[in-house]
Amino acid sequence: MLQPWCSGSARCVRKALFFVFIWGLIMIAAIQFRHMETVQENVAGSASHGASLSSGRFLLQQLIDSSYTREPVVPVTQSPLEMEPLLDKTPSRTEDKLIEEIETRLPSLPLAYWNRNKNNKAMHYKNESCAKFPSIFDLEFNNIYWQSMHTSNGSFQLFGAFYDTRELSKIGPAVRIVGMINRIEPTVKSFCQIWYEGEKEPQLVETFEYKYVWYSKWGNYKQGIYQPYIITCRVPQSHHKQVPASVSLVPKACDTATNNLRVIYNKPPEKKDFAVCVKGLDFLHEDLSVRLVEWIEMITLLGADKIFFYELQVHPNISKVLNYYEKLGKIHVTPLTLPGGQPNVPAFQHMYLTKKMNHKRQNELIPYNDCLYKHMYEYEYIALLDIDEVIMPVQDATWRELMDRILPKSLKIRNESRASYNVRNVYFLDDLLHSHGWFKDVPRYMHMLQHVYRAQNFTKPNQYVKCFHNPERVVTLHNHFPLACLGSGCTSYPIETEDAQLQHYRADCVKSLKKSCVEYRENSVMDTTIWRYKNKLIDRVTRTLKTLGFFGPGYASER
Ligand SMILES: *[C@@H]1O[C@H](CO)[C@@H](O)[C@H](O)[C@H]1NC(C)=O
Ligand SMILES: *[C@@H]1O[C@H](CO)[C@@H](O)[C@H](O)[C@H]1NC(C)=O
Ligand SMILES: *[C@@H]1O[C@H](CO)[C@@H](O)[C@H](O)[C@H]1NC(C)=O
Ligand SMILES: *[C@@H]1O[C@H](CO)[C@@H](O)[C@H](O)[C@H]1NC(C)=O
Ligand SMILES: *[C@@H]1O[C@H](CO)[C@@H](O)[C@H](O)[C@H]1NC(C)=O
């Protein structure tokens, strides 16, 4: 191709070099030009917002920024011998710092307890040939966050262990382990080795029960598939006043365990009002970050003291949002995987969860129950919500006021607290808005504030509801209702639709409601209950989006 204008090889090289040089100059000019354009646009943009001071600061910022971004393009005069890459020069972590880091990442690992006792760990056993305390390095982990036990008939994958001293529990203080077993109706015997701070010998007790967190009629009722369970061991009378440090589950009482879980017991002197638990987020390619900001702010306005997220895979923009709120202490994020042979490669896992609905539902019960047991002493109520659902009080401003008003109503019907208080589901479908048009006084990025058309009818009582669960009463939780409860069974008070509604923001109804969904679409009403929070919500969301750089760097430095 070069032939027509290039004959001798030396001339050829010179010519080529010349072209490269000219091309380089053109590129530099082009980049300069584009850069000036963006600066001008941005100045215009921020001036129109009347923020001339910050635009000045912004210009400076741009100049500093551009000196970075341009560096690789400008012909480099510096010799590589004088160049130094920017590395993280933080000194290496001390062991204490490492332990802290590991415990945050893997809260089920009793690392601090093990570390305090590791020097005399040879002493930790029932007797020389029975129930040795396992070295933390000999535990069998599965898919990062789980620990395993294999028996002659079934494998166990354990996620978390908790100390249950709830008054209504008739079996007395107990250790509850949240995990999965690849058996239905497991019959195999097992034992808990319960370890205490400052005690050499573990307490050995036979497992009291494997509580199935599922109904057989829902499907997946097959040997070999990992199923959700709460595994319970009663604490011996002699130790009712002590909090266990860790627990191992073993097939025979004297075995050296392949698992050892910290027994979590978060019991502050006083309870806060509301915690919200969100199952493992699976939004790898779906950038729901802005909707998530609106949801977190809305839920917080309504009175959630803290939101506990579990995270499978999320888009980097969602991570940005989660990190931001976690630093503020408003939310907490627990990393999560699927145990056993289930897929954990990000996109593949998403496909699996989409195609295998029953597996998805069974796996969801782990974060829900983990969240319940971790926080049962810290909050009066725990709600399990998805990030497209809001429990909206109709007459009150907050959840606290709502509960204060409906509790007397419920007590009038039956003079005792309920295991849960359920709220009826109603769909706010995406396309209902689009047949009406956007609202001009609401930014379009406020999904919920824009989507104020809903189906006229609620879904049927008890169907697709969400609850405020009473953690003093619940033993096993399912998405919509508790499955097992302490005291007088899983009583649930249906909160009337005049008091609250579960606003469910979706593109479409769940599959099982395909038929009714046609009617929902044909009979919609405008429902602006959420507009009571309009100003506050727009203000909070917009401020957060600016801070996080969603409107570009021009706004990021404003605060
Ligand atoms: C060790 O303890 C176990 C369980 O209490 C007991 O069955 C066994 O006899 C003990 N062995 C020795 C050597 O003391
Ligand atoms: C294994 O456990 C299942 C229940 O999960 C039971 O039906 C089966 O009989 C057991 N098999 C053996 C060999 O014990
Ligand atoms: C309801 O129960 C509480 C104690 O649980 C009792 O103090 C109260 O008197 C009862 N109220 C009625 C109306 O029975
Ligand atoms: C709404 O509910 C009422 C009463 O349950 C029922 O008669 C009606 O057919 C429902 N309408 C739609 C559109 O679903
Ligand atoms: C969101 O993701 C897109 C695509 O990766 C990226 O261009 C954008 O900068 C991200 N937004 C923020 C605020 O980081």
Quick synopsis:
The protein has 559 residues and is α+β, with helices and mostly antiparallel strands. 33% of the residues lie in helices and 24% in strands.
Fold blueprint:
Blueprint: H1 9-48, H2 52-70, H3 95-105, H4 111-117, E1 141-142, E2 146-151, E3 154-164, E4 174-181, E5 191-195, E6 203-206, E7 209-212, E8 227-234, E9 246-250, E10 261-264, E11 272-283, H5 289-302, E12 306-314, H6 316-327, E13 331-335, H7 346-355, H8 357-375, E14 379-384, E15 389-393, H9 399-413, E16 420-423, E17 425-429, H10 430-434, H11 447-450, E18 453-455, E19 466-469, E20 474-477, E21 482-485, E22 492-495, E23 500-506, H12 514-522, E24 524-526, H13 534-547, H14 553-556
Parallel strand pairs: 3-10, 11-12, 11-14, 12-13, 16-22, 17-23
Antiparallel strand pairs: 1-2, 2-3, 3-4, 4-8, 5-6, 5-9, 7-8, 9-10, 14-19, 15-23, 16-19, 18-24, 20-21
Helix pairs in contact: 1-2, 5-6, 5-13
The structure holds 2-acetamido-2-deoxy-beta-D-glucopyranose (5 copies).
One 2-acetamido-2-deoxy-beta-D-glucopyranose is lined by residues 317, 320, 548-550.
GO molecular function: glycosyltransferase activity
Membrane topology: Single-pass membrane protein
Subcellular location: Membrane
